[in-house]
């Protein structure tokens, strides 16, 4: 099939125009879309990193659970795997930007200038050759008109030269048109080949990314799926711990608090000392001097009710305003030294002890030192009940205290107190409240623990036992007036 040179020339020009008017603008649009693609992938990887960081944190929470530890480790592994794949994807798109977007953007500007210059050159050359061919044809026509006259042989040689020149220029024209068309089509193909080659490189890079993803996830995915197939499965260590809890002895319940006391005995208090504790000779003096006044309302209630205090627990205060939640406490009035016996409790006077036993045993009480937190036995006569001033102020009812050791019942062991110095100024004592005090028992010079204290250290009158003798004076002098 023969092709008309004009059709070939038209194809050539259309090819150049197609590259300049469609291909290059398409590349420009492709570059812009590629930049948007990069931003989207960058935002995706950034959001994916934040997402899988959150997954990892949740996995860390599950990793500390005795039941869900393995699931937490799986979540952490999944997070790490996806973050690695995101890093690989970021690297791939760095190559995408460098090898495709940046290079295409650079080539578009150069190619627009190159294709425009190439098309103009082709059109100029084609026009020149065509003009020369047309000029040769017109010259040949003029020469043939002249040869039809008388001297025909004179123009035969010249006519043959023009015919040869025209044939040569036609061949040259055809060759130029063919070469121009071929060059235009190749220019177009080179550009498409370049674009295909770059995207083949991108595809190969993405294929490598997906191959790494398959290799990384394909090995771990079955193990991850096995960990979550049965949500009711409990690890063997937890089952052993639960079975151990079932087989262990049931703890003893706390005893129900009594009517007057919320405290309970310690689980295993040490045995009380074998010797009976000696009462302090001054303990009743302290209790007598600090006995609170009782209102008439309380006296009326007490007169109507039972008078037997021995039925109350000996380690509890029966004050109306007492906080029943707290354990009873006592304040020491004499120092006590345990010595080498580790079951006894050492203390100084004025310290607080929390009682741990409801009743005394042979004159001993068991308690805990409030400051040192040490526990031990101590004589009940070395202390008195302790009531806080704030609790006394908050209590609207009158207070009637009973000693932890029930010191009221120990009046037989009390000493006789001397009368105060100004007896007429002291308030009268109700006969119903104070009974006759028997003579005190004999005590050795050295008290228990080897410590002796005079009565005035407890707050009494140091001159209460001093007897004044009458004085006689023979001084008959008088002032000089």
UniProtKB/TrEMBL annotation:
Subcellular location per the Swiss-Prot or TrEMBL entry: Cytoplasm, Cytoskeleton
Which residue stretches does the UniProt record annotate as biased composition, category Polar residues? 288-297
Q: Which InterPro entries does its entry note?
A: AH/BAR_dom_sf, I-BAR_dom, IRSp53/IRTKS/Pinkbar, SH3-like_dom_sf, SH3_domain
- GO terms, biological process: actin crosslink formation; actin filament bundle assembly; plasma membrane organization; positive regulation of actin filament polymerization
Q: What residues does the IMD domain cover?
A: 1-248
Question: Which GO MF terms are attached to this record?
Answer: actin binding
Instruction: Identify the residues that the record assigns to the SH3 domain, covering every copy.
Output: 325-388
Question: Which parts pass through the membrane?
Answer: none
Q: What is its main location?
A: cytoplasm
Coiled coil (residue ranges): 126-153
List the record's Gene Ontology CC terms alphabetically: cytoskeleton; cytosol; nucleoplasm
- Segments of this protein annotated with the region Disordered: 245-315, 412-455
Question: Which terms are listed as keywords in the entry?
Answer: Actin-binding, Coiled coil, Cytoplasm, Cytoskeleton, Phosphoprotein, SH3 domain
Where composition is biased (Basic and acidic residues), the residues are 298-311
Q: What does this protein do?
A: May function as adapter protein. Involved in the formation of clusters of actin bundles. Plays a role in the reorganization of the actin cytoskeleton in response to bacterial infection.
What name does UniProt use for this protein?
BAR/IMD domain-containing adapter protein 2-like 1
Originating species: Erpetoichthys calabaricus
């Amino acid at each position: 099939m023969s092709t008309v040179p004009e059709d070939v020339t038209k194809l050539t020009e259309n090819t150049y125009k197609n590259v300049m008017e469609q291909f290059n603008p398409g590349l420009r649009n492709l570059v812009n879309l590629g930049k948007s693609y990069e931003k989207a992938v960058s935002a995706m990887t950034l959001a994916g990193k934040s997402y899988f960081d959150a997954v990892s944190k949740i996995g860390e929470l599950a990793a500390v659970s005795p039941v869900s530890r393995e699931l937490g480790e799986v979540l952490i592994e999944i997070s790490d795997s996806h973050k690695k794949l995101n890093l690989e994807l970021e690297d791939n798109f760095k190559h995408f930007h460098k090898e495709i977007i940046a290079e295409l953007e650079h080539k578009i500007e150069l190619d627009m200038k190159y294709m425009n210059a190439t098309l103009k050159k082709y059109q100029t050359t084609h026009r020149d050759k065509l003009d020369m061919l047309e000029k040769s044809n017109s010259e040949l026509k003029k020469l043939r008109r002249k040869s039809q006259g008388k001297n025909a042989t004179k123009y035969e040689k010249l006519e043959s030269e023009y015919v040869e020149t025209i044939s040569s220029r036609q061949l040259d024209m055809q060759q130029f048109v063919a070469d121009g068309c071929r060059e235009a089509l190749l220019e177009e193909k080179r550009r498409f080949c370049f674009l295909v080659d770059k995207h083949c490189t991108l595809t190969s890079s993405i294929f490598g990314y997906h191959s790494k993803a398959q290799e990384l996830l394909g090995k771990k995915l079955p193990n991850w799926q096995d960990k979550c197939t049965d949500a009711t499965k409990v690890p063997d260590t937890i089952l052993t711990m639960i079975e151990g809890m079932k087989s262990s002895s049931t703890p003893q319940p706390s005893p129900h608090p009594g009517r007057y006391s919320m405290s309970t005995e310690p689980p295993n208090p040490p045995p009380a000392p074998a010797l009976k504790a000696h009462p302090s000779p001054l303990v009743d003096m302290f209790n007598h001097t600090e006995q609170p006044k009782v209102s008439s309302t309380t006296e009326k209630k007490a007169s109507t009710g039972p008078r037997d205090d021995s039925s109350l627990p000996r380690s509890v205060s029966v004050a109306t305003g007492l906080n029943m939640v707290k354990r009873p406490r006592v304040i020491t009035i004499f120092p006590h030294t345990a010595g080498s016996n580790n079951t006894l409790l050492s203390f100084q006077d004025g310290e607080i002890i929390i009682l741990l036993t409801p009743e005394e045993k042979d004159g001993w009480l068991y308690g805990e030192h409030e400051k040192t937190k040490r526990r031990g036995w101590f004589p009940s006569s070395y202390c008195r009940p302790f009531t806080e001033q704030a609790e006394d102020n908050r209590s609207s009812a009158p207070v009637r205290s009973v000693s932890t050791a029930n010191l009221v019942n120990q009046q037989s062991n009390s000493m006789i107190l001397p009368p105060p110095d100004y007896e007429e100024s002291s308030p009268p004592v109700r006969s119903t409240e104070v009974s006759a005090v028997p003579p005190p028992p004999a005590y050795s010079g050295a008290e228990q623990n080897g410590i002796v204290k005079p009565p005035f250290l407890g707050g009494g009158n140091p001159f209460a036992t001093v007897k004044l003798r009458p004085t006689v004076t023979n001084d008959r002098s008088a002032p000089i007036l």
